[in-house]
Design a protein that fits this description.
Structural class: mainly alpha
Distance between the termini: 16 Å
Order of helices and strands: HHHH
Number of helices: 4
Strand content: under 5%
Number of domains: 1
Shape: globular
Oligomer: single chain
Number of strands: 0
Radius of gyration: 17 Å
Length: about 140
Amino acid sequence: MNKTLSYIYLLLFVVSLLGSFYLFSLPGASLPSIYWLNIPNLDKYIHAGIFFTLCYTGTIALRIINRGNINNAYLFLLCILFVLYGIGIEFYQESFVEGRAFEIADIVADGIGCLFFLIWFLIKGPLKKVGPDRNRDLNQN
């Protein structure tokens, strides 16, 4: 991977992390309401999607930092750190964000997003290294 692409992926992770913090910092009254989209617990799906994205971009960033060497222990640790980030966000919302409250269901949704990422990654193995002979079908993790 060339340096420019590496920097783009690292920037994508930083933007994802800061973007999630911004979204979680919006006051309750500022949250958009999609009245025509009547999906029960839509915010929980959004939480799960955000944390899936954080795990994905975090894995790419970790892989760049470790120069391609990443194993499942790193992935589990990364997901645990993001679940802890989700718990911290709930305390932050309860204490500092107007109109937002601590919700156990949000933490569960955050954990489910991380769990879905782990399952998806372990089944699909999307971040495969490409060897010098271009063997893309062999997972060299």
